[in-house]
Amino acid sequence: MNQTIRGYTLTQWLGSGGMGEVYQAVHDSTQRTVAIKLLSQLEQAERFRNEAALQASVRHPHIALIYDFFVEKNLPCLVMEYVEGPTLQQVIRKNASLSEEAAWKYLGKIASALDYLHQRDIIHRDLKAGNIKLTREGQPKLLDFGLARQANSPRLTRQGHLVGTVASMAPEQFSGESNAASDCWALGVLFYEMLTGYSPFGGSTDSEIGRLIQKADYLSPVKLQPAISRASERLINKLLVVSPERRLTARQVLDIIKEPALLDKSDWMEPMRKLWGKMKL
Predict the structure, then answer these.
(1) Which residues form the catalytic set?
(2) In this predicted model, what pLDDT tens digit does every residue of 15-49 receive, in sequence order?
(3) What's a single GO MF annotation on this record (predicted)?
(4) Which of 57, 81, 94, 179: CA 20 to 30 A from 120?
């Protein structure tokens, strides 16, 4: 291969995404190994610049860094931290599922990254196991901000056009809406997958998956893995809630990881919510 772009020598093709190809590369002067995403769809240039700006604005131990962004011969290029290791999706597939201890550990670190983003009004919108890589030390790193956006920023997607990976999308995203709670729904999907090895919404077509998601119609994880604790089951139930307002936030997930007993609190409010719902009808 050995193609050189702005002082970076491309050494290996790593894969392709929705907007471009990703290569491993080495900087000729510093010898730093990086990942470079080359835009293949020029009509997506504005979204590509948005990805660079958003990811470059954040610094978190569980979010991959952005080093540089430039345009070479009309080709936008994004230079990113190279994470040498498998994706979480690959690890789940290899092992069929993860131990409950490992799933909670990864959950806490990804929830920490989401909480950091949400405090800065950034929504990732494509959280999934394939967008998380593990370092040699086993630390998860959140990647791919191609669909991320800042709250109240101009839309880069046509109204009514679905954004994200269907199996991880929250109910409101099928109506073209997304917010921090949408990321937390995806976190619930991810936790379910880590514990069981399966997606909670396993329809055979996107439309069938969408119908199941919009009703939060999923098989209890205990049916697939009987050894799963009550705490894990309850946490999934509190993340995969149709109403975004009732979903746990990333901060609440972090609090629960520190003190699982919090899962059993606030249930006394449920009868009040149902009564209020009836009064509004």
Answers:
(1) 126
(2) 886 677 899 999 999 999 999 988 876 666 777 77
(3) ATP binding
(4) 81
